Amino acid sequence: MFNHQPGIIPALDVDIEQAKAIAESVKDLKREIAGLKIGSILCWQYSLRKVVKELKEVCDFPLIFDAQKAGTDIPDMVRKQAKVVADAGIDAFIAAPQGAGSATLTAFVDACNVHQLLPIVVLEMTHPESSAFLVDDAADRILEQSLELDVKHFVAPANRPERLSAVKRIAEERAKRIRILSPGVGPQGGGPDRAVEAGADFIIVGRALYQAEEPEEEVKRIYKLISRSRSGTILY
Ligand code: XMP
Fold first, then answer.
1. In the chain, which residues have pLDDT < 70?
2. What is the pTM for the complete model shown?
3. 184 CA to middle of ligand 1, Å?
4. Domain containing residue 81: CATH number
5. Peptide bond between residue 6 and the one before it cis (omega within 30 degrees of 0)
6. By the number of CB atoms within 10 A of the CB, which of 73, 100, 102, 130 ranks highest?
């Protein structure tokens, strides 16, 4: 999954007709688009199964489910969440274990492996005060445990490039090769090219893309920026 980097992941926080229209408009941009992110807005309105089915009729990109946020419950529930998500046809599942603890994180990764989902772990969020209720080193602790569990994909903020570099450095020090998916560009202030320079592999883009008059052109514009920052070769 996600063979070429850098790449763009549209966040489809829209209704199903618009989601399908965006998927249709970018379906041939195989180099630029790494996958599509389905979130709570689509899933709550239409059900995950229906959304997956309809998007798969339009395109063959990997589908990432970001429940905004999953993986925050007791371990047993998180295992059930992974099964439901896998049964719906999703390829990769994002968890945010902040507030849930290590048993939940372990259960999430294990259940993803059981159900052939790619586990993706949120390290920290993009918006101001997002860590207000957390211990100062929450992100580093989540990263350390995830690396021990052999998680290879993480969400970290594009609008805090110094954190992207720090995350990549910590992983390298432990001889781990990871990939970072970064939201927080456009309205949240991050620059896609700066994020990729700092260590992001994939840029998650919501409003900047689905509010654009021509999402396809916006994808091409962003891709031009990020592909100049790093060559889009298969790294591993
Ligand atoms: P925008 O419209 O700001 O939305 O481009 C970005 C998408 O990414 C999600 N998002 C986040 N997800 N950690 C996450 O795991 C974050 O810090 C974060 N910030 C934004 C958001 O839900 C939307 O789908």
1. 231-236
2. 0.95
3. 6
4. 3.20.20.70
5. yes
6. 100
